[in-house]
């Protein structure tokens, strides 16, 4: 594909405000679809559709952890032009009220994740010796 066409693919993927907000959140933290739904206040089908678009355009990557899949912004290996494009977009999106609201909800999601993890390990602590055997 000619280099000039690649920028248009990136612009198409980034042209949606929801996808841009999603990338802003995923730049900082690796999140599941469910967590993204909570942060962005969107239904699962909408979040999944946007993740598919971003994944097809190589803007996000995912990894499986048990039954969950975690998504994150994928800038590693991207060229300087793509990084500059993201930097410009990040600057614009970060200044919006939607990004502020997302950041507040993200704090709640991360706090719940921490609490859930602590509860699991507290409940498993009594069984740890048996689990190790």
- Approximate shape: globular
Give the N-to-C terminal Cα separation. Answer: 55 Å
Spatial arrangement of strands, main beta sheet: 1-2
Backbone structural class: mainly alpha
User: Total number of β-strand segments?
Assistant: 2
Compressed to H and E, one letter per element, the order equals: HHHHEEHHH
Biggest sheet character: 2 strands, antiparallel
- Can you give the helix content as a percent range? over 70%
Number of H/I helices: 7
Task: Describe it.
The protein is mostly helical. The protein contains seven helices and two strands. It has helices at 3-14, 17-28, 33-40, 44-56, 80-94, 97-125, 128-132; strands at residues 60-65, 68-73. The protein has a two-stranded antiparallel sheet. α2 (17-28) packs across α5. The longest helix is centred in the last third of the chain and has 29 residues, at 97-125. The radius of gyration is 18 Å and the shape is globular. The model has no long low-confidence stretch (mean pLDDT 88).
Task: Describe what is shown at a glance.
The protein is mostly helical and 133 residues long. The chain contains 7 helices and 2 strands.
List keywords for this structure.
mainly alpha; 133 residues; 2 strands; two-stranded antiparallel ribbon
């Amino acid at each position: 594909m000619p280099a000039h066409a690649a920028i248009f693919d990136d612009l198409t993927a980034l042209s949606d405000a929801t996808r841009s907000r999603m990338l802003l959140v995923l730049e900082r933290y690796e999140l599941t679809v469910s967590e993204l739904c909570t942060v962005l206040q969107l239904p699962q089908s909408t979040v999944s559709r946007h993740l598919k678009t971003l994944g097809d355009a190589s803007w996000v990557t995912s990894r499986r952890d048990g039954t969950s899949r975690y998504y994150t912004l994928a800038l590693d290996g991207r060229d300087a032009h793509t990084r500059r494009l993201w930097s410009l977009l990040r600057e614009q999106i970060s200044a919006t009220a939607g990004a502020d609201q997302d950041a507040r909800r993200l704090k709640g999601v991360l706090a719940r994740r921490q609490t859930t993890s602590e509860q699991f390990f507290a409940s498993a602590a009594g069984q740890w010796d048996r689990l190790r055997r």
